[in-house]
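Bench notes, afternoon.
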Amino acid sequence: MNVPAATPPTQRESLARAIAQVNGLVLGKARQIELCFACLLASGHVLIEDLPGLGKTTLARSLAATLGLGFQRLQFTADLLPSDILGVSIFDQEMRGFRFHPGPVFTQLLLADEINRAPPRTQSALLEAMAEQQVTIDGTSHALPDPFFVIATQNPVDLAGTFPLPDSQLDRFLMRLSLGYPDTQAEHDMLMGRDRRELIGKAPALLDTETLKALRQAVPNVHASEALVAYVQRLITATRQHAQIHVGLSPRAGLALLRAARALALMRGRQHALPEDVQNVFVEVAAHRLVPAHGNGDRVALAKSVLHGVAVD
């Protein structure tokens, strides 16, 4: 077995400090923060579906500050146009030609707030950006910054004036997460502590861009054994044969699952992925990609039933 070289200790230490700082800013959400970092290292994007006021924006701003990333927040509304996201070409009389004016998507961390309040045409403006890290305007492709990470939010309860994300858009998100209410101790510490915005404003950047890029490049080198790949294949097959699932996971979803498991293994100091890594990310990677056989079925419950029904060996 060809085992890749271990991640340098300085990179692992910087990553650990960065995770610890975000945990100090967003209290009581250690698992969600770990999964956000795994998603970022796996070169994916994350969709956070939850009620207002539970820390979605705080999490995005904390990640941007801790990682030293350029940050833009874009509020999605019914009248938002694709050009409001991507940018527009405007005729420049002095140049006697069109000049491209980049939109807010040209940043390293984009918070797409309440993405489902924009119509499908506007939602689809992010498809190329999220899949290929570029946008095409008037036949010209423009590269986005590296790294490029999208955190999108949507409200699962207030459906007035919203447009459900199509499956093609959902598939662009490596994971879908939910923050939920904080536990009693975390809420007490938050109420007794200083304003989160003030703390974020003073938070130092603990992971530079070059280190982040190096960690992302190391993820594909984390070893996945034949047995682990076979386990992933059994999970994928189970979603396609499940009586309550109309559309199961695609091969692209299988690749996303392996990528997320590798990133989690790297974060935990290993150069090989384990079945536990796959299990720890499966629901967040798989649930939003499943299409229930009976209307609006519980996708999370379906993903959990698949996970519990497939043996490791």
